Amino acid sequence: MKLREIRKNQKMSVPELSRLSGVSIRTIEDLEKRGDGRVSTLIKLADALNVTLDQLCRN
User: Domain residues for 32?
Assistant: First the structure.
């Protein structure tokens, strides 16, 4: 998953992404470490980052 990479490229902090997406900071941190999560959560993050789910999830 490219969550951390995309977030950093957009110069966005974890708290900012949390605020924009409605996903908790802890969940975002866990996803960046584990690399897997619920599709509904990933959709919220992709929307907040203005990328497709495919762009977010492809390695």
Answer: 3-51
